[in-house]
């Protein structure tokens, strides 16, 4: 029969083995030293600066600005002056537009003159004006620059080399006018 001390020794041995087994099973491994990079300090991105883009204000068109300065000088050199008028398309007044008639208003009355015009126009108003002009006998032509509406050649008082008299050009939110189709080439508005 084992002695009480032997039982106690066996119990302590079993307890020691159990403690050792528990310690080995649940113990975390020893930490190993690893190389880590030093934290990088980054500066915050600067706040974007919001600046308002202010479009330069386009002045209103005038008889001296819708055509080249050299043309104005040429008219003035022969004694011509200009008469500015409202821009009408039939009954429709285009309030922000202008029609300019260059002539010798001090001399005897004649049909020796030049007319130029420019006005902003909405697509809807342009379509309505084109329909009204064609219904009144004007002729429509589609071109690379836009839609040309020109007076009937049989009623033209003054025509260019190609036989065109008064002509409107509808393009890009604007309508231009000249007493001949070739005259439209002189209109440079907006600059």
Question: Can you tell me about this structure?
Answer:
The structure is a single chain. The protein is an alpha+beta fold and 191 residues long. The chain has a domain at 69-105 and 112-186: 3-Layer(aba) Sandwich (Protein Transport Mog1p, Chain A). Helix content is 24%, strand content 26%. The protein contains 3 helices and 7 strands; from the N terminus they run ααβββαββββ. The protein has a 7-stranded antiparallel sheet with strand order 1-2-3-7-6-5-4, with helices on one face. β1 and β2 form a beta hairpin. The longest helix is centred in the N-terminal third of the chain and has 23 residues, at 4-26. It is globular, with a radius of gyration of 45 Å. Mean pLDDT is 81; it is low at 3-25. Residues 1-27 form the signal peptide. Residues 28-47 are annotated as: Disordered.
């Amino acid at each position: 029969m084992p002695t009480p001390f032997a039982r106690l020794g066996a119990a302590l041995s079993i307890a020691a083995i159990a403690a050792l087994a528990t310690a080995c099973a649940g113990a975390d491994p020893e930490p190993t030293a690893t190389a880590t990079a030093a934290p990088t300090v980054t500066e915050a991105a600067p706040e974007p600066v919001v600046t308002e883009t202010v479009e330069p204000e386009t002045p209103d068109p005038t008889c001296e600005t819708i055509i080249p300065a050299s043309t104005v000088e040429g008219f003035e050199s022969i004694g011509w002056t200009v008469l500015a008028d409202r821009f009408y398309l039939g009954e429709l007044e285009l309030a922000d537009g202008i029609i300019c008639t260059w002539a010798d208003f001090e001399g005897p009355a004649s049909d020796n003159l030049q007319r130029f015009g420019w006005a902003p126009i909405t697509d809807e108003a342009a379509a309505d004006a084109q329909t009204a002009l064609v219904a009144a006998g004007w002729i429509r032509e589609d071109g690379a620059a836009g839609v040309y509406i020109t007076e009937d050649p049989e009623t033209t008082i003054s025509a260019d080399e190609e036989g065109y008299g008064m002509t409107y050009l509808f393009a890009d939110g604007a309508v231009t006018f000249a007493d001949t189709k070739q005259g439209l080439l002189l209109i440079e508005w907006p600059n």
